[in-house]
Amino acid sequence: MASQTPQSQTQFQDFLPIMAQKLGGDGLIGELCNGFNLLVDGDKGVITFDSLRRNSAMLGLQDLSDEDLRSMLKEGDFDGDGALNQMEFCVLMFRLSPELMEESYLLLDEAIQQEFQNCN
After folding, report:
1. Which of 3, 17, 28, 88 is the least crowded, having the fewest Cβ atoms under 10 Å away?
2. CA-wise closest residue to 39 among 76, 78, 82, 86
3. Are 75 and 69 in contact (CB under 8 A)?
4. What distance in Å separates the CA atoms of residue 5 and residue 40, rounded to the nearest whole number?
5. What is the pTM of this model?
């Protein structure tokens, strides 16, 4: 099954790599947690369609259509419950950041190569 990225996503500049450089790993995760807390349904403890629609303007996403919001939820919803828990949200944010994903792949490749060199 092919992954679908909301069409409106292409309109946004990817600030996640800049945040990662400035904040470091722990700081970036903290900011992602803050973003999750802005979008979460306080009663359910997850991001639902309704909470995403209601709170998305705080993150500059007010122009996204209901279809775009549903696509974002579907893209990140690994357990199939129709909502995003904190882990699913953080993974989705990384997946939607091509530059950060590329950097992660490069670091992983470098670590694997170094491990192989240590085995010899």
Report:
1. 3
2. 86
3. no
4. 21
5. 0.65
